[in-house]
Write a structure and sequence with these properties.
CATH architecture of one domain: Single Sheet
CATH class of one domain: Mainly Beta
Structural class: alpha+beta
Number of strands: 7
Shape: flat
Number of helices: 1
Distance between the termini: 35 Å
Largest sheet: 3 strands, antiparallel
Radius of gyration: 14 Å
Order of helices and strands: HEEEEEEE
Helix content: 10-25%
Strand order of the largest sheet: 3-2-7
CATH topology of one domain: Rubrerythrin, domain 2
Strand content: 25-35%
Bound molecules: zinc ion
Length: about 60
């Protein structure tokens, strides 16, 4: 990893969007095609795994 990483200063809105888990957020496994969808939102980080790999975040089109 980059050791001279100097993070940008985040404002409250950016923090909120970065840490919120939105209903309808979709993740897909590139190995088996398994798809999961968030049905209850929350705050935190969500890093679902399938087949030992991080599932890919799928941008929902609405
Ligand atoms: Zn899988």
């Amino acid at each position: 990893m980059d050791s001279n990483f100097s993070g940008p200063e985040w404002n409250a809105d950016e923090w909120q969007s970065a840490w919120s888990i939105n209903v309808g957020k979709t993740y897909k496994c590139s190995e088996c095609g398994n798809v999961i969808i968030v049905v209850r939102g929350g705050t935190g980080t969500l890093e679902p795994r399938c087949h030992g790999k991080l599932m890919e975040s799928v941008e929902g089109k609405s």
